[in-house]
From TrEMBL:
<keyword id="KW-0132">Cell division</keyword>
<protein>
    <submittedName>
        <fullName>Integrase family protein</fullName>
    </submittedName>
</protein>
<keyword id="KW-0963">Cytoplasm</keyword>
<keyword id="KW-0131">Cell cycle</keyword>
<dbReference type="InterPro" id="IPR002104">
    <property type="entry name" value="Integrase_catalytic"/>
</dbReference>
<feature type="domain" description="Core-binding (CB)">
    <location>
        <begin position="45"/>
        <end position="157"/>
    </location>
</feature>
<keyword id="KW-0238">DNA-binding</keyword>
<keyword id="KW-0159">Chromosome partition</keyword>
<dbReference type="InterPro" id="IPR013762">
    <property type="entry name" value="Integrase-like_cat_sf"/>
</dbReference>
<feature type="domain" description="Tyr recombinase">
    <location>
        <begin position="180"/>
        <end position="419"/>
    </location>
</feature>
<keyword id="KW-0229">DNA integration</keyword>
<keyword id="KW-0233">DNA recombination</keyword>
<dbReference type="InterPro" id="IPR044068">
    <property type="entry name" value="CB"/>
</dbReference>
<dbReference type="InterPro" id="IPR011010">
    <property type="entry name" value="DNA_brk_join_enz"/>
</dbReference>
<feature type="compositionally biased region" description="Polar residues">
    <location>
        <begin position="305"/>
        <end position="317"/>
    </location>
</feature>
<feature type="region of interest" description="Disordered">
    <location>
        <begin position="305"/>
        <end position="330"/>
    </location>
</feature>
<dbReference type="Pfam" id="PF00589">
    <property type="entry name" value="Phage_integrase"/>
</dbReference>
Amino acid sequence: MPNPPPNRVVALLPAPLDTLVIPAALDGGSGTNRATGGHAQIAAVNDLDAIRAWLARLADKQTTFDSYRKEAERLLLWSLVQLGKPLSSLTHEDCLRYQHFLADPQPASTWVANAGAGGGRKHPRGDPRWRPFYGPLSPASVRQAMVILNVLFSWLVQAGYLAGNPLALSRQRTPKAAPRITRYLEPGLWQEVKDTIASMPQDTARARAHYDRVRWLFTLLYLGGLRIAEAGGNTMGQFFVRRDAGGTMRWWLNVHGKGDKDRLVPATRELMTELTRYRQSFGMTALPSPNEATPLVLPIGKTAGSTAERTAGSTMESARKKPEGPSPGPLTRAALHTIVKDVFAGAAGRLRERGEAFAARADLLEQASAHWLRHTAGSHMADQQVDLRLVRDNLGHASLSTTSLYLHVDDDRRHQETDEKHRIDW
């Protein structure tokens, strides 16, 4: 990549949008791509305020907000630090350079967290070790980043802040068939993960509570095929029961998920057994009540209204004995991710103890994330010859109309096949 222009005046270091202070010369107040005519629809007078106005629309959608903020933040910082120019002065050629930069953010010491250790570790946004990247982006992640930035630029043009979208000239690729899913755990590796969970210590109240939570979380992600954000953003009150045409009572979980869409997930007998087991470990009733606000996954030792987990086992005991009162808040998506990654790391460590022959399988587990469990669920259902249309509906890859009698009957068949053929078998 060419060196920054020699007339660059101000040197900046990457910092989160929350704390970023931009010199007036680079704030975009007089960016070369600023709209000059017409009436602006937003009050922003600089690039940072314009980005904040764009993000403000997503304040109630935490997952989308985090993703969009990350991409806007990275581009803004790259424009300031690497080019020494405002975001509102970026050209089409600059955007192409940025696209190449995403595949290898250099210098790594400036852009990548823990660059000397190979990257990968995330730090809180207020931590001085925070960096915009955790390593090079995959081709799929680069494409996703550019899609989000195209949305940003298009919105700023529509809002009357920018004169044009520098990404609008990009070549539109012909959509390709989705690649075969490879990020999943084949049955043998999945068994290693379950064995690791089964071997977790349960000798103290807190250890037992952690085991119960891990077992329930993996059950939920695998049997329900939930996304990690869905596990953190839905409640136990969304379980409900209804009678099918033959008079059988079947439990369902109404999941509010990606794209603000709802889908019905079959709550199989095995899933409901695990839910009962998990709730009773907290001294709660076996089954949730309608509209119950209890999070699907409970923090350990968290009292109502607190914001952080406590470490004292006595608090856990108190929580078990006092289920009444306001429900505690849900675990964050990052906290749920950490729980899953820790289990995968533990399973990988157990494999490595068996010798070099298991190293490749351990490496694969260390790459796995919570989303792999969703892919694993879909792959295993397909392997067990669950109708692919039912797998699609279980995972929410297409919307359902619950008002249609035909689809209602199809729902019951989907529940029966999922219940019979998709099991966790602890």
